[in-house]
């Protein structure tokens, strides 16, 4: 047969490879999706049991401020009010994002605009090392350094949202910084050149052109950092005091969803109300991270360059 | 890329091979899960037992009394460690479990060294934890606000403390920590702090309190003069057999009790002059 | 103030911020090392831990940490590469892809204790892997995959489209273009992501407490057959890592020298992460030079 015809009729080696590659990568992504769905299903089935099996009112769960699932109130209903933890979680998350943002954006500008050389040689490794310090160690430094300092400066016991904020600030700094760096790097070079050509100084170029163009990316980085802060457990648990109380101020003991979840989960029996209530907290965390993600997506859509 | 994939599949097949192989050459192995307060003792005993009996593996894991009881109830592990009687834990069907008591743990209130109080009545102690007493000068100490540090809800130590001190009252919502080490370091570093730990965790950094003149000593626990104590339980599902049986016998043997248990700061079962049941009834032996 | 003066001032402020961050890390590192290094000795690094006496080391934990890291990277890197390639090169831009991406990102913000408990119920109990390195590695994979995947996807996307066009114009298929042109170009970015991921794995404790376990049985370092239970390579033995060990002795340890062991172990952990970063960076640069024409 005509060799050309034969080659046309059979699938080429490249096409076979292409098919195989496509399938392999599709298999990988499918596996990940299956895992995510499994976790979601698992957490949801346990977390929802509080409301369906144990008949706890969802509204009570979100607005009451007494957390003692093992104890029944005057009406014989277990006290599962998650409000103190919700307030605590949002408190530390927003405050740490507020503190971390100027540092992260500053460091990112330094690395991309001011001194890329120093940035690459010193700041980048520094930031990667910050990620590598285990949260247990952050927690102990917080306990032995930050808490006593807060106690001497502001009074009280030193445990509370303020201490949690400081620890989380250092922990989310790398995330926000590296994502801001990516956003700044993605700003096309000709934007900067145009601004400089118009006689703008470096700072004018940065503040009025580069930052503005990179804003959606920076916001995404901040929200990402907040998502990390929201889910962090061990370190925060050690410094926030872990008391299921509505925080009066920044230096009174408070708690977060993760700190209560982590400290309680080993002490409860699978399937009991105490256990289900903790899984409801986990479900709340999942939903919150879903909300954070939708926010990121929304910011991304808004900021798309048209 | 191909090389990477090759390495990946080689590693994968190695793991699979090992999976099949491990079942053959594993010898006998059992797993004990649960109470973190009991974990160090069981670990040490398992270490000794393994060095005497080759080819035997005893895995000891923490995770909390709740985990221990729910896993043994499901039959997922051979031994479930717990600080509490299975009857005391909601959600556990105690009938199907067999209790093996291996040690006794005394629990004592600890305070920051600067509070200026050495002795309290049980009522005063209770009022400290309910929030009725808010300053140490109300019980004859220094003018310092009281900082209560509680244990995590559902923890064995907290359940024991509340059973014998709180008399059905609820403690005020306060700091909660789930590990003894954290509680001790917070009490050691926070002026006016009070909490409670097992005897073996007391060290120079914190001070203990006597209750109505009775000091928290092992001797007072053995006679029940100091009432805040609990058994350490190792539960099995049904009567233990094989290695589980042998190991539990070893744990309860005179030799282990006298040497290891006492050396590690627990109170041996053999030293107890009283016995207590799940309802808290005390009988002299 | 003139624009020039503001420019000067802001440059100063940015230098200050960069300086503060470097100082912060220097302070953290210094604190950990000053507290810990005095306790680190050859004996400490090589001897097994003691459960209630003083003088225990961290030899087995150190080995476990590295082995667990290796195993979880072996599982998660190919998966993340595949998934990242799919998302960057093949996925169509529609709602389904959006859902998939959101799902992956949600997984990344899950508290690790939840991942750990999921791993406990699924790998340890359901699949009967027991408390083992394999269970731990799988749990860590779940915890690491989202970040790695995202990182691979981002790195691939940053490779200019002209590079792909060049590959396609040479008659390569899309897959061949990705493997031979795009990935080598994106390698430094992918590598940075892996180093960050490895650092997180190395320091993770909460996800491992319920999966890899908290006991470190004695190992026979003369036996490298992965089928033997006392062999260091056996993936089916329980393995306490360094981070878990630090957590454990701080929470329930009754060793008289618990504080010293904890400080020493933290210092070793930090040094290990540091060494790992440097090594990966050096190896990555060499690989990049070999795979590209640079």
TrEMBL record, chain A:
Protein's UniProt keywords contain Cell membrane: yes
Function according to Swiss-Prot or TrEMBL: Part of the binding-protein-dependent transport system for phosphate; probably responsible for the translocation of the substrate across the membrane.
Record Pfam families: BPD_transp_1 (PF00528)
Descriptive protein name: Phosphate transport system permease protein
Lineage of producing organism: Bacteria, Bacillati, Bacillota, Bacilli, Lactobacillales
Domain ABC transmembrane type-1: 86-296
Entry keyword set: Cell membrane, Membrane, Phosphate transport, Transmembrane, Transmembrane helix, Transport
Annotated compartments: Cell membrane
Native source species: Lacticaseibacillus baoqingensis
Transmembrane segments annotated in the record for this chain: 21-44, 86-110, 122-147, 153-176, 209-230, 277-296
Family annotation (PANTHER family): ABC TRANSPORTER PERMEASE PROTEIN YQGH-RELATED, PHOSPHATE TRANSPORT SYSTEM PERMEASE PROTEIN PST
SUPFAM superfamilies: MetI-like (SSF161098)
InterPro entries recorded: MetI-like (IPR000515), MetI-like_sf (IPR035906), Phosphate_PstC (IPR011864), Phosphate_Transport_Permease (IPR051124)
Membrane topology annotation: Multi-pass membrane protein
PROSITE patterns reported in the protein's UniProt record: ABC_TM1
Family according to the record: Belongs to the binding-protein-dependent transport system permease family. CysTW subfamily.
TrEMBL record, chain C:
InterPro entries: MetI-like, MetI-like_sf, Phosphate_PstA
Keywords associated with the record: Cell membrane, Membrane, Transmembrane, Transmembrane helix, Transport
Tagged with keyword Metal-binding: no
Gene3D superfamilies xrefs: MetI-like
Domain ABC transmembrane type-1: 62-280
Source organism, top-level taxon: Bacteria
Compartment(s) where it occurs, according to its Swiss-Prot or TrEMBL record: Cell membrane
Principal subcellular localization: membrane
Topology term for the membrane: Multi-pass membrane protein
Transmembrane segments: 12-34, 66-87, 99-123, 129-148, 258-280
Recorded family membership: Belongs to the binding-protein-dependent transport system permease family. CysTW subfamily.
Descriptive protein name: Phosphate transport system permease protein PstA
Species the sequence originates in: Lacticaseibacillus baoqingensis
Taxonomic lineage of the native organism: Bacteria, Bacillati, Bacillota, Bacilli, Lactobacillales
Gene name linked to the record: pstA
């Amino acid at each position: 047969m005509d060799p050309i015809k034969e080659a046309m009729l059979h699938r080429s080696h490249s096409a076979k490879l292409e098919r195989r590659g496509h399938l392999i990568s599709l298999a990988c992504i499918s596996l990940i999706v299956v895992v995510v769905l499994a976790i979601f299903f698992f957490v949801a089935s346990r977390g929802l049991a509080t409301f369906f099996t144990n008949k706890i009112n969802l509204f009570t769960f979100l607005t009451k401020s007494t957390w003692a699932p093992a104890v029944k109130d005057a009406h014989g209903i277990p006290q599962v009010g998650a409000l103190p933890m919700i307030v605590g979680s949002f408190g530390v998350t927003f405050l740490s994002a507020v503190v971390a943002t100027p540092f992260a954006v500053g460091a990112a500008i330094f690395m991309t605009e001011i001194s890329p050389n120093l940035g690459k040689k010193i700041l980048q490794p520094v930031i990667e090392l910050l990620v590598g310090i285990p949260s247990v160690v952050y927690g102990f430094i917080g306990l032995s350094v930050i808490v006593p300092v807060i106690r001497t400066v502001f009074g009280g016991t030193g445990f509370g949202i303020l201490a949690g904020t400081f620890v989380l600030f250092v922990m989310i700094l790398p995330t926000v910084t590296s994502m801001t760096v990516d956003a700044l790097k993605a700003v096309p070079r000709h934007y900067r050149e145009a601004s400089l050509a118009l006689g703008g100084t470096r700072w004018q170029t940065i503040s009025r052109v580069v930052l503005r163009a990179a804003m959606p990316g920076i916001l995404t980085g901040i929200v990402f950092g907040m998502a990390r802060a929201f889910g962090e457990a061990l370190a925060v648990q050690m410094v926030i005091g872990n008391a299921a109380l509505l925080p009066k101020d920044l230096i009174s003991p408070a708690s977060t969803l993760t700190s209560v979840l982590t400290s309680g989960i080993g002490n409860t029996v699978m399937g009991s109300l105490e256990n289900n209530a903790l899984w409801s907290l986990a479900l709340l965390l999942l939903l919150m991270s879903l909300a954070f993600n939708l926010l990121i997506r929304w910011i991304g859509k808004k900021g798309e360059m048209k | 890329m191909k090389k990477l994939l090759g390495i990946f599949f080689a590693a994968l097949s190695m793991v699979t091979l090992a999976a099949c192989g491990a079942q053959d050459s594993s010898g006998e192995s059992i797993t004990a899960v649960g109470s973190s307060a009991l974990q160090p003792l069981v670990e040490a005993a398992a270490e000794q037992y393994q060095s005497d009996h080759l080819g035997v593996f005893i895995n000891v894991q923490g995770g909390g009394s709740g985990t221990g009881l729910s896993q043994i109830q499901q039959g997922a592990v051979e031994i479930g460690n717990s600080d509490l009687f299975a009857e005391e834990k909601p959600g556990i069907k105690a009938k199907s479990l067999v209790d093996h008591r291996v040690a006794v743990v005394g629990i004592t209130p600890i305070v920051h060294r600067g509070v200026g109080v050495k002795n309290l009545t049980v009522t005063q102690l209770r009022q400290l934890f309910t929030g009725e007493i808010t300053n140490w000068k109300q019980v004859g100490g220094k003018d310092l606000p009281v900082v209560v540090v509680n244990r995590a809800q559902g923890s064995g130590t907290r359940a024991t403390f509340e059973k014998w001190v709180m008399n059905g009252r609820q403690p005020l919502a306060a700091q909660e920590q789930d590990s003894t080490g954290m509680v001790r370091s917070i009490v050691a570093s926070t002026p006016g702090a009070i909490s409670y730990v097992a005897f073996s965790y007391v060290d120079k950094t914190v001070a203990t309190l006597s209750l109505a003149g009775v000091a928290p000593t092992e001797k007072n626990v053995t006679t029940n003069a100091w009432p805040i104590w609990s058994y350490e339980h190792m539960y099995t599902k049904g009567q233990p057999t094989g290695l589980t049986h042998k190991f539990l016998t070893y744990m309860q043997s005179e030799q282990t009790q006298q040497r290891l248990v006492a050396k590690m700061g627990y109170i041996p079962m053999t030293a107890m002059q009283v016995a207590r049941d799940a309802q808290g009834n005390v009988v002299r032996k | 103030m003139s624009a020039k003066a503001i420019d000067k001032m802001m440059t100063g402020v940015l230098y200050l911020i960069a300086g503060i961050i470097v100082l912060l890390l220097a302070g953290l590192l210094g604190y950990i090392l000053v507290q810990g290094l005095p306790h680190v000795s050859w004996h400490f690094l090589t001897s097994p831990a003691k459960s209630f006496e003083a003088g225990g080391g961290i030899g087995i934990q150190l080995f476990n940490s590295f082995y667990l890291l290796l195993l979880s990277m072996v599982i998660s890197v190919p998966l993340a590469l595949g998934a990242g390639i799919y998302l960057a090169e093949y996925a169509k831009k529609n709602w389904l892809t959006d859902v998939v991406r959101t799902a992956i990102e949600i997984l990344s913000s899950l508290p690790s204790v939840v991942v750990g408990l999921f791993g406990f119920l699924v790998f340890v109990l359901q699949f009967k892997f027991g408390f083992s390195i394999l269970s731990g590695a799988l749990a860590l994979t779940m915890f690491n995959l989202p970040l790695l995947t995202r990182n691979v996807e981002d790195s691939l996307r940053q490779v200019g489209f002209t590079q792909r066009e060049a590959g396609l114009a040479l008659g390569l298929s899309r897959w061949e273009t990705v493997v031979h042109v795009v990935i080598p170009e994106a390698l430094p970015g992918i590598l940075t992501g892996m180093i960050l991921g490895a650092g997180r794995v190395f320091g993770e404790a909460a996800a491992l407490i319920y999966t890899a376990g908290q006991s470190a049985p004695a190992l026979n370092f003369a036996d490298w057959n992965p089928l033997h239970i006392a062999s260091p390579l056996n993936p089916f033995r329980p393995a306490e890592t360094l981070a878990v060990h630090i957590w454990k002795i701080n929470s329930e340890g009754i060793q008289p020298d618990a504080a010293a062991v904890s400080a020493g172990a933290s210092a070793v952990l930090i040094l290990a992460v540091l060494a790992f970063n440097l090594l990966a960076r050096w190896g990555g640069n060499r690989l990049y030079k070999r795979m590209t024409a640079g």
